Amino acid sequence: MSLYRSIFRRIRRFTLFTGFGGVSFAVSEAIIAFGYTLLGRHLILGIEVTAAFTSVTTGFILNEKITMKGVGVHGGGLKGLGIRLAKYQLVYLLGNAISITTQLALLYTLGITPAIGNILGSAVALPVNYTVSSKLVWRAKAFNE
User: Fold this and answer.
1) Membrane-spanning regions, if any (predicted)?
2) Residue 13: Cβ within 10 Å count
């Protein structure tokens, strides 16, 4: 495979991964808005946890079936799928830690609002989420896939 084709495939995967991250974010926001409206403030922690798990799982399914199709490891039946999902959830814990740390640093050092800080923090975490999940979850190789 040519270097050009390999680079093009990586750019395509990163673009899909980013787009599906946006879809996952929308899923999370919808669950939070609906849950808060339906169940109220007193259950917000459970709503937030449900939104986080559901949105990350949505991103995993989209990336498993589309972004990383034909790349790396996809075997192992339901057990393999469950292991990859668990790894993906762990990667997103790391990504969320990076995002939240960035958000708080921007808030306390530069006075940037949490909403803007969340967007910037997510942008900082995105390459980490993509790289680590590609390697850890699907075991993608360097330039031959």
Assistant:
1) 14-36, 42-62, 90-109, 115-132
2) 20
